[in-house]
Amino acid sequence: MVATAVFCLVLVGLAALGFASEGGEGAHHVDTGKQLKDFMWRVIDFAALLALLVWALKKANVKGALGDRTAAIEKALRDAETARDAAERKLAEYRDKLETANKEVDEIYAGIRREGELEKERIIAEAQAAAEKIREQASAAANQEIVKAKAELRDEAARLAVQMAEQAIREKITKDDQDRLAKDYLTKVESLH
Asked: What is the torsional sign of CA 89, 95, 101, 104?
């Protein structure tokens, strides 16, 4: 950069010499010293500005800053790519875990459903057995009640028949019939002994 500035100064200096050596053979006379002085101040201003610009660029380290910025951007891109790859791996891992979890949920649901069906069948079978047992007990109880009622009816019928027969005998039996019956009974008892 300094070499470029020196080259520019040399070039400007040579141009100034060229202007100064030119002959003044024209119609009007120009003050070349004044022009040369003015040109020299312009060259010095330009050189100072150029030096200031070179110094500012070096101070700012534009090339280094741009290189650092490029390196930082490249590093950020590499980091982003690495992070993206890691995120894609994590995503694939979580998808696999989610798929596995969904399968497990489906298996658990199917197992619970099967167990529920088996429990339902068991409860229905127990209920049917209990209903059958209750029917049998009710039938047995009804049969016992029928037998009991028949026995009570027979007993009542027999009691009523005895009572009616007794009443009928009392009304129709006479003293002679009573004596004859007592005599027959005694004869039978004696024959048995």
From this structure: negative
Look at the alpha carbons of 137, 141, 142, 144 in this order and tell me if their dihedral is positive or negative: positive
Per residue in 171-184, pLDDT (tens digit) is: 777 778 778 878 88
Torsion 170-175-176-178 (CA) sign: positive
Q: What's the residue count for the chain?
A: 193
Q: With 70 as the cut, is the pLDDT of residue 62 above it?
A: no
Taking CA atoms, 141 is separated from 131, 134, 155, 179, in Å, by 15, 10, 20, 51
CA separation for the pair 16, 30 (Å, rounded):
15
- The Cα–Cα gap between 73 and 142 comes to 99
What pLDDT, in 10s, does the model give residues 103-120? 999 999 999 999 999 999
Distance CA 166, CA 137 (A): 42
Rounded to whole angstroms, how far apart are CA atoms 5 and 43?
Answer: 12
DSSP state letters, 100-124: HHHHHHHHHHHHHHHHHHHHHHHHH
Residue pair 59/39 in contact (Cβ under 8 Å)? The answer is no
State both tokens at 135.
Answer: 């029917």
**CA distance linking residue 64 with residue 83, whole number of Å:** 28
pLDDT at 87 over 80: yes
CB 39 within 8 A of CB 19: yes
Give the pLDDT score at 27: 47
